[in-house]
Amino acid sequence: MLTRLLHTETDFTLAWMRIVAGSVMFAHGAQKMLGWYGGKGYDAALSGFLAMGISEPLAIIAILTEFVGAIALVAGLLGRLAALGIVIEMIVAVAIVHLPHGFFMNWTGAQAGEGFEYHILLIALAAPVIVRGAGALSIDQWLERWLHAHHSAGQLHDAHAH
Which pLDDT score, from 0 to 100, does residue 155 have? Predict the structure, then answer.
């Protein structure tokens, strides 16, 4: 099961997609978790989610997904799970907040809120990682190779012991 979760090819396109998606999401997560990039930090983010009617446990998961999940995605650590968390969060954000505001972001300030074009782009970058893995230069790829080498070495040792 773990090797299926970690399995990925040496695919630099997947690496690029995961690093871009994770980096963009990290900025949003750092706003919520640390107050970086003009954000208000954890307490304000949590209060904002609670004001939207989102339960505290789900709000905490959302904040952690944006921050820790983004870091994991950039590193390619459990890339499929990190990408899945981000895709789920983007779908929920569209459904709960952004769908009524239409497709386009609020570039001119003329809309009541932000549309969902950003969310679709992030989903499009993360979805291939769910399907095909974290790609080249990922911790998942390294772990898969390490597990394979140690599993093979263990089988070889067991064969010589008998």
Answer: 58
For 84, the token pair is 């899945």
Distance between CA atoms of residues 36 and 114, nearest Å: 21
Domain positions in the chain are 2-161
Long-range pairs for 57-66: beta carbons < 8 A, 24 or more residues apart: 62/89, 62/92, 63/29, 63/32, 63/33, 64/33, 65/29, 65/89, 66/25, 66/26, 66/28, 66/29, 66/32, 66/33
> What distance in Å separates the CA atoms of residue 149 and residue 143, rounded to the nearest whole number?
10
pLDDT single digits (tens) 106-159 = 999 999 999 999 999 999 999 999 999 999 999 999 999 999 898 776 554 454
